Amino acid sequence: MGKITKNEESKASKNIVNRQEIFNQYRPRLQAIAYRMLGKLGDAEDVVQETFIKWQQVSLQEIQSPQAYLTTIVTRLCIDYLRSVRVQREQYVGTWLPEPIVSHKSDEPKELVELADSLAMAFLVMLERLSPVERAIFLLREVFEYDYDEIGIIVHKNSANCRQIVRRAKQHLGTNRSRFNASLEQQEQLTRKFIEACNQGDLQGLIDLLTADITLWSDGGGKVKALLKPMQGATKVARFLIALRRSKLIPNYDLELVRVNCQIGIIYSLEGIVQNVVTFEFVPCRIQSIYFVRNPDKLRRIFSSAHGAQIARIKK
């Protein structure tokens, strides 16, 4: 076997660098797709890494469009993953909620802020009602704006089938109902009122902040106490929250206003360790849904910040 010349080494090195640069160009989009598909940052990162491995193994001369190739790989890997964990999620103790992305002030991860509306917890929870393939088609079309021919190639379906699946998904999800895109200032105002009402034990004030058909979701994963089923109704939810606040079983939590999936939310921490992340779905002047993520496996990446906007400490 002949020796590798310096010129050949240099050419190989440039190819590696070029391949890395191309992948890095599309990494934010791949991460955005994977998180919305899977609802867990760690799983999304694993899928993106596996996509990179496959990218390293393919000949660049065979790739007409790096973006199309990488999108296809990451989407198919996500579909395969969701199919593999279907039984696991069906056996999940209580309600399964996506892993929240928490940031302080305005430092949301750039790779996830793209199309921020589709990061909302309410939107991600809604996607759980779709099959893996339906979710992929719906996201690629409605969020990332791929055309039906491109989507068909990715999921091995014709464009007519993809169009029909998107139409059925919209009907199933009820996405035609009007949604309220509250500004961050409006979200913060309602969130502060929510905290104040809970802290003061103001039942009527809390009821007035909630829609009549509000739903409270709680995810403990069977590892900490949480509701096993969603709770509905303003009075019922308000009474539960007030009772929870007054419970002697609840320690002296620190509260901090943060961004949760690019919206205003709250983290509850104890001695610097996050115990609970809360986020909301808003409608005009009201809270439509409340999401409590308590599963410690989904809070490991989240830290209380000394630089955050601390607003209260619960006192018994």
What features would you highlight for this structure?
alpha+beta; Butyryl-CoA Dehydrogenase, subunit A, domain 3; Nuclear Transport Factor 2, Chain: A; 2 domains; 8-stranded mixed β-sheet; 8 strands
Plain-language structure description:
It is built from 12 helices and 8 strands. β4 and β5 form a beta hairpin. It folds into 2 domains: about 5-175, PhyR, sigma-like (SL) domain (Butyryl-CoA Dehydrogenase, subunit A, domain 3); about 185-315, Roll (Nuclear Transport Factor 2, Chain: A), CATH 3.10.450. It is of the alpha+beta class. α1 crosses α3. It is about 50% helix and about 15% strand. It is elongated, with a radius of gyration of 22 Å. Mean pLDDT is about 85; it is low at about 1-5 and about 305-315. It has helices at about 5-40, 40-55, 65-85, 85-90, 110-115, 120-125, 130-140, 150-155, 160-175, 185-200, 205-210, 235-245; strands at about 100-105, 210-220, 230, 255-260, 265-270, 275-285, 285-295, 310-315. Strands 1, 2, 3, 4, 5, 6, 7 and 8 form an 8-stranded mixed β-sheet that branches.
Count of domains? 2
Unreliable stretches (pLDDT < 50, length at least 5) are 1-6, 306-316
**How many individual β-strands?**
8
CATH architecture of the largest domain: Up-down Bundle
**The CATH topology of the largest domain, please?**
Butyryl-CoA Dehydrogenase, subunit A, domain 3
* The CATH H-level homologous superfamily of the largest domain: PhyR, sigma-like (SL) domain
Q: Determine the number of helices (DSSP H or I, runs of at least 4 residues).
A: 12
Strand content: 15-25%
Summarize the main sheet: 8 strands, mixed
Radius of gyration: 22 Å
* Overall average residue pLDDT: 86
Shape by Cα distribution:
elongated
